[in-house]
Amino acid sequence: MNGGVFNGAMRCAAVILFVIAILVPIVSLASQFYMLSANSGSISSYSSSDSRGSLLPLLLSLVGSLQSAVLPFFGAAVLWRWDLRNARAEAAE
């Protein structure tokens, strides 16, 4: 292992963080859909007589998952820009 797992992960850190930022909302929404289907769509604190009763938890889940994905996405953007800057500096030398 010449480069090692750590060096390989650091070379691909921006891509890894971007994938995590994409997966966080998807997994969170899938979990919420699963919980709603397991409860047959009725949640005791929400009205089950109209469709908005199950829409509110989904919207709250979406906002929470997007909020959780902001930090990995920001980290991916920073690392990507840093890599571009370093590549330009090495090319100029």
What does this molecule look like?
With 93 residues, this protein is an all-alpha fold. The protein has one domain (4-40, 59-92). Helices cover 81% and strands 0% of the residues. It has helices at 4-11, 13-38, 52-92.
Topology (SSEs and partners):
Elements: H1 4-11, H2 13-38, H3 52-92
Helix pairs in contact: 2-3
In short:
With 93 residues, this protein is mostly helical.
Strand pairing plus helix content: what structural class?
Answer: mainly alpha
Kindly, what is the distance between the CA atoms of the first and last residues, rounded to a whole number of angstroms? Answer: 29 Å
- Sequence of secondary-structure elements: HHH
- Proportion of beta-strand residues: under 5%
* 3D shape: elongated
Q: Number of DSSP helices? A: 3
Kindly state the number of beta strands: 0
Q: Provide the helix percentage.
A: over 70%
Features:
93 residues, mainly alpha, 0% strand, elongated
